[in-house]
């Protein structure tokens, strides 16, 4: 059966879509504040937008200053598709294809648009008490804008009474998110970010913890106001996550990836998730997809984990997914001794 026809059969699968990783649709769009529309200020804003985008895509604070990008930084117009003014900001839209090509040619690791969805538990503390930032209020929008600026998909909790009782300073500062996990399930996020922010007369400061699976990252930040504080926190979070998910071409090898339990919706998700790995779909067998990719195995595992895929061994693959073989007895030949099977290190198998 032809490959395209086999893909159409995936739509008949009864599996449901369970992945919660988010595609950042505006990853290559950057807003930078301006006080006027003068050409000199516009050019400065475009330069800042270039720095912001490179940091989003690489997670490296000094990436935009690398000598290999000197000419591009001097004239970023060659990777800009359009720009225009939105209120008091300059909106710069970069072309994804030419941007990725230039950054890869400069030897930089890139983090694709398929990113972990973060649920943010943000608690503000001041002289009047504690306030959990809930979705829909002004301070939540400030945090969302910082997340967009740093290329992170986020959700904010409703901050209803049950959540306010759980999101205490003690629970947000705990080494494990045991108290937060049950009330977080309703939001279907990939990771939890707990932030305790304190406002004083001069500035804001915060301590934060990020949980991705069972692994914890933590840090602290400060800012003159909530906007600068949230930007500082989310910048650090994006850099920590980029170390996990950014794909370095120089550290990649050619791998075969077999994925079982696919349907048409999951196929679309896989195409998006595997895009940074130069993936080629080589075979479709029922609900099993076989890709050739160029990837670091650990980074590939982290990326596919966002889709709730679990790695399996060859023994766990369904019998019908194995290559068919003829019985020697049917051919009138003596049965050969059972060969010793040595697992291939260049084949990774995953299943929903």
From TrEMBL:
<dbReference type="Pfam" id="PF09839">
    <property type="entry name" value="DUF2066"/>
</dbReference>
<dbReference type="InterPro" id="IPR018642">
    <property type="entry name" value="DUF2066"/>
</dbReference>
<feature type="region of interest" description="Disordered">
    <location>
        <begin position="315"/>
        <end position="352"/>
    </location>
</feature>
<keyword id="KW-0732">Signal</keyword>
<protein>
    <recommendedName>
        <fullName>DUF2066 domain-containing protein</fullName>
    </recommendedName>
</protein>
<feature type="signal peptide">
    <location>
        <begin position="1"/>
        <end position="21"/>
    </location>
</feature>
<feature type="compositionally biased region" description="Low complexity">
    <location>
        <begin position="326"/>
        <end position="339"/>
    </location>
</feature>
């Amino acid at each position: 059966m032809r490959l395209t026809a086999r893909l159409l059969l995936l739509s008949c699968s009864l599996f449901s879509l369970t992945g919660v990783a988010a595609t950042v649709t505006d990853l290559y769009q950057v807003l930078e504040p301006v006080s006027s529309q003068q050409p000199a200020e516009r050019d400065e804003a475009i330069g800042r937008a270039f720095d912001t985008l490179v940091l989003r895509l690489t997670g490296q604070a000094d990436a935009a200053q690398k000598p290999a990008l000197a000419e591009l930084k001097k004239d970023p117009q060659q990777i800009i598709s359009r720009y225009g003014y939105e209120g008091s900001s300059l909106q710069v839209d970069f072309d994804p294809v030419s941007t990725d090509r230039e950054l890869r040619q400069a030897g930089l690791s890139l983090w694709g648009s398929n990113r972990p969805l973060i649920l943010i538990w943000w608690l503000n503390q001041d002289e009047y008490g504690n306030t959990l930032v809930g979705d829909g209020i002004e301070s939540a929008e400030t945090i969302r804008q910082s997340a967009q600026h740093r290329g992170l998909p986020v959700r904010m909790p409703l901050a209803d009474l049950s959540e306010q009782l759980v999101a205490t300073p003690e629970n947000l500062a705990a080494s494990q998110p045991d108290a937060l996990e049950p009330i977080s399930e309703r939001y279907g996020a990939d990771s939890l970010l707990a932030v305790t922010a304190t406002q004083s007369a001069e500035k804001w400061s915060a301590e934060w913890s990020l949980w991705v699976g069972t692994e914890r990252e933590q840090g602290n930040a400060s800012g003159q106001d909530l906007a600068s504080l949230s930007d500082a926190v989310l910048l650090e979070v994006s850099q920590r996550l980029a170390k996990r998910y950014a794909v370095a071409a120089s550290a990649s090898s050619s791998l075969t990836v077999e994925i079982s339990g696919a349907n048409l919706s999951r196929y679309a998700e896989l195409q998006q998730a595997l895009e940074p790995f130069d993936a080629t779909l080589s075979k479709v067998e029922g609900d099993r997809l076989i890709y050739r990719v160029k990837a670091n195995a650990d980074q590939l595992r982290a990326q596919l984990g966002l889709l709730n895929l679990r790695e399996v061994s060859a023994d766990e693959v369904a019998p019908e997914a194995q290559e068919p073989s003829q019985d020697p007895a049917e051919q009138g030949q003596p049965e050969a001794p059972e060969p010793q099977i040595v697992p291939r290190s260049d084949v990774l198998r995953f299943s929903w």
